[in-house]
Design brief:
The chain has 403 residues and is an alpha/beta fold. The protein has 2 domains: 237 residues, 3-Layer(aba) Sandwich (Aspartate Aminotransferase, domain 2); 136 residues, Aspartate Aminotransferase, domain 1. A 7-stranded mixed beta sheet has the order 1-9-8-5-4-2-3, with helices on both faces. The longest helix is centred in the middle third of the chain and has 32 residues. The N and C termini lie close together (11 Å).
């Protein structure tokens, strides 16, 4: 067997993967327009004649991209979730059901407003929230569900909407990783009550920082807009504060970057999709690696991450990652279970006075033993890079007795 790089052999890949973020002359041009306009923030102040404000343009184009009627820009994706819950009518003390396999913001954004996250386990073959685990978590205090479109794969929105409708719950889509993704031909963020997106620098569409909410419900849009604009109301006076709100606004500079980035989005999505399909083909049937199931109703996967699982013959997930990393493949371990996260448990106790522990054995097994991922910039690299990733993973799998 070929000697592993970690044992002194030759690494499979020695060339860097595609850099991220990608920027060019258009970003510079739009940023210069903002700089010279005199209108740097989005809420007030007159711009020079002929200047088109960037924030309204971004909100309009983003809503169109995701098949939504309305969009509201915010400072980041975490705040977007908090605002979405408030806009949909949830209040401190209410409960919202979330998956435990997600970035901590899905839970901490709720806790920031005193809304209590309740964890329902994930599906072993998709790593997305298991709809059939949700109803057993519903109590009289449950007021919402957050569907996380993990890695760019939409959750089962058809079943989640059925459950939400049956129990009168708000359905929030955490689409931080899923810009451009679709479920049965509809853009995520336009299917539930409100969708939330992140424009943080690692995301497939980024502005360094920032976030956007989308909805088809005008009342929710007005609520969200008001919350983000210190309680003002659309078309109201500058000092007409009719709701409790905060200043959660993005700047024109961030909107300028996001608008420029949107011009590259379709080409980049296509490249990720092609290379993910190639990687699936090259890894299919490899002993030691198990591909995730993709629901056929996912009509477009955004591939913010390329995720797969390790077969039981791989007895040490961390060692597999170490060997892959030595081969030049930036394989990562992924999340830890939020249902076991100390800060989430302690903050929940602060709000409820209770120690709440939710059993999520599938998620815990995935985190400890099975789930791994590659970041989106790997898929943005050329075909040779993808083939070398597959070669490296084959090589590492063989070192555990795979084929």
């Amino acid at each position: 067997m070929e000697k592993l790089a970690i044992d002194g052999g030759t690494p499979t890949r020695t060339t860097p993967f595609a850099s991220w973020p990608i920027a060019g002359e258009l970003e510079l041009e739009l940023l210069k327009e903002v700089l010279e306009s005199g209108k740097w923030g989005g809420a007030a102040g007159a711009a020079k004649a002929g200047y088109e404000p960037k924030l309204p343009a971004l909100e309009r184009k983003f809503a169109e991209l995701q098949d939504a009627a309305y969009a509201v820009s915010v400072v980041n994706g975490t705040v977007a979730i908090t605002v979405a819950l408030q806009a949909a009518g949830l209040k401190p003390g209410d409960e919202v059901i979330v998956p435990p396999y997600t970035f901590i913001a899905t839970a901490s954004a709720a806790l920031a407003f005193g809304i209590i996250p309740v964890f329902a386990d994930i599906e072993a073959d998709t790593l997305l929230i298991d709809p059939e685990k949700i109803e057993e978590r519903i109590t009289p205090r449950t007021k919402g569900i957050i569907a996380v479109h993990l890695a760019g794969a939409p959750a089962n929105m058809t079943r989640l909407q059925e459950i939400a409708d049956k129990h009168g719950l708000a359905l929030i889509e955490d689409a931080a990783q899923a810009v451009g993704a679709t479920w049965e031909g509809r853009g995520v963020g336009s299917i539930g009550d409100i969708g939330t997106f992140s424009l943080q620098s690692s995301k497939n569409l980024n502005a360094g920082e920032g976030g956007i909410l989308t909805t088809n419900n005008r009342d929710y849009w007005e609520n969200a807009w008001s919350i983000c604009n210190v309680g003002r109301i659309p078309d109201g006076g500058w000092y007409q504060h009719e709701r409790f709100g905060q200043n959660y606004r993005m700047t024109e500079f961030q909107a300028a970057i996001a608008l420029a980035q949107m011009t590259r989005l379709e080409e980049q999505m296509g490249r990720r999709e092609r290379h993910a399909a190639l990687l699936n083909e090259l890894l299919d049937g490899v002993k030691g690696i198990r591909l995730l199931r993709q629901d056929p109703r996912i009509t477009r996967h955004a591939y913010h991450l390329y995720m797969f699982k390790l077969d039981p013959i791989v007895t040490d997930k961390n060692e597999f990652i170490r060997r892959a990393n030595a081969e030049g493949v930036p394989l990562a371990s992924g999340y830890i279970p939020l249902n076991r996260n100390v800060s989430v448990i302690e903050t929940t106790r602060m709000w409820t006075g209770e120690d709440r522990i939710y059993e999520c054995p599938v998620c815990e097994s995935m985190c400890e033993k099975e789930a791994v991922w590659l970041s989106q910039n790997v898929l943005l690299s050329d075909e040779q890079a993808v083939r070398e990733v597959a070669d490296a993973l084959h090589k590492v799998s063989r070192s555990f007795g795979g084929s």
